[in-house]
Amino acid sequence: MDAKHSELLRFTTAGSVDDGKSTLIGRLLFDSKSIFEDQLEAVRETSERRGEEGVNLALLTDGLKSEREQGITIDVAYRYFATPKRKFIIADTPGHIQYTRNMVTGASTANVALILIDARKGVLEQTRRHAFIASLLQIPHLVVCVNKMDLVDYSKERYEEIKEEFEKFSYKLDVKDVHFIPISALKGDNVVERSKNTTWYDGTTLLYYLENVHIGSDHNFIDARFPVQYVVRPNTDDFHDYRGYAGRVAGGVFKPGDKVMLLPSGFFSKIKQIDTFDGPIQEAYPPMSVTLLLEDDLDLSRGDMIVRENNQPEVGQDLEVMICWFNDRPMQQRGKYTLMHTTQDVRCVIKDIRYKLDINTLHRDQEDKNIEMNDICRVALRTTKPLFYDAYRKNRITGSIILIDEATNETVGAGMII
After folding, report:
1. Residues carrying CATH 2.40.30.10, the chain
2. How many other C-beta atoms are found inside a 10 Å radius of the C-beta of residue 10?
3. What's the CA gap between 191 and 214, in Å, rounded?
4. Helix residue spans in 206-323 (DSSP H)
5. pLDDT on residue 188
6. Which residue intervals of the chain bear CATH 3.40.50.300?
7. ∠ CA 75-220-105 to the nearest 5 degrees?
8. How does DSSP classify residue 196?
9. 150-176 burial by CB neighbour count: b if 16+ within 10 A, else e?
């Protein structure tokens, strides 16, 4: 399989401060030969200048100057690497509570979340918070990396203890697939190479897991959803009859000859052909970007959706949404915002703040309606025109929204439709 067509896996890393996220990513890049000599040389020099022994692999990912100076991760850093089996995009997200919004941003498209636990400290409040956010964002696969095993003498008992403690907590969450790996990011145990120090562990290395975890069914291939992004009308002599609808498949499989229904009009048509940059294809599925041509000349525009008659999304103006607030100005009850959903932009009003969620205890506070930056809450909102949506747990694309402040054009919140 060549690199152009190999599957892409997105994963996010989360964990509390100093438990080695950046070191782990550095180790993955270093041991899988995914960094350049000059990058390594620059890191080696910085490590020496700081009087550190060996090469500080964490410096490979802490890209911002302020991050390197403080020795912490502040913003989401995206790193790209590839092995012969797969391509990877890593979102290295910060561990501090004041960067919850950065974590939500980095994790929103991930297939896998790596949650790091320091073997000496065990499951912390932040571990629970990150696991909860991963389940809220419906990340399909969770890998718990019990790190710094070298500092607990590679103790099997300690590893089992942490595993049991995390499992007990994860039963409360909506997480389907949890995997545990004992590692040392610093020494490289079980990251890319199997460790001789953990002979009692018979599972895979982290890289093997990332290369082989089945992500084909992470997308929704059942509910056909095609939000129209752009109407293609070339208007040249060769193409004067051409009218295509370009967009990205958000769910299901589309094939030429399929009978489809158009929303909001409710009209029916059939797919005549499916075009891509490389020519026509026989089927389109998520997350492909394609142009659909229909047999009938019907009026469709940006924000409309192509679906199947017997499998339609919800259509409505009243939504219940879990929102992570991004802005330093608090959310306004009765406040008006621009709402972006698939390819639609509408205006909306926050009708009611149902409760604020304490992400450490999972307690729902119905009294405190003051929603500030990094808070997560459930709200009822009403839009100025109907949206075509699914519950987020059914479809992460048609179930997510973004709120924008109309005055400043800032993104103030991201939400999951319940």
Report:
1. 226-307, 314-417
2. 20
3. 19
4. 206-212
5. 93
6. 7-218
7. 10
8. G
9. bebebeeebbeebbeebeeebeebebe
* pLDDT tens column, 82-121: 888 999 999 877 766 667 887 888 888 899 999 999 999 9
Strand partners, 178: 142
For the chain, state the CA radius of gyration. Answer: 24
Number of Cβ within a 10 Å radius of residue 239: 12
- pTM score, whole prediction: 0.86
- pLDDT per position as a tens digit, 133-182: 899 999 999 999 999 999 999 999 999 999 999 999 888 888 889 999 99
* Residue ranges in the chain modelled with pLDDT below 50: 1-3, 64-65, 67-68
Q: Which one of 1.10.940.10, 2.40.30.10, 3.40.50.1580, 2.70.70.10 gives the CATH number of domain 226-307?
A: 2.40.30.10
CATH among 3.40.50.300, 3.40.50.720, 3.10.20.90, 1.25.10.10 for 7-218: 3.40.50.300
Distance between CA atoms of residues 141 and 175, nearest Å: 8
Q: Given strand 141-147, what is the order of strands in its sheet?
A: 77-82, 86-92, 7-15, 112-118, 141-147, 177-182
| CA–CA gap between residue 62 and residue 304 (Å, rounded) | 41
Find out whether 325 and 375 touch, Cβ atoms under 8 Å: yes
Class of 314-417 in CATH: mainly beta
Q: Which residue has the tokens 């052909």?
A: 273
Are the C-beta atoms of residues 395 and 250 closer than 8 Å to each other?
A: yes
Number of H helices, E strands in the chain: 7, 21
C-alpha closest to that of 362 among 193, 180, 41, 128: 128
**Do 236 and 57 meet the contact criterion of CB atoms below 8 Å apart?**
no
pLDDT at 327: 94
Amino acid, single-letter form, for residue 348: C
Cβ atoms of 43 and 27 within 8 Å: the answer is no
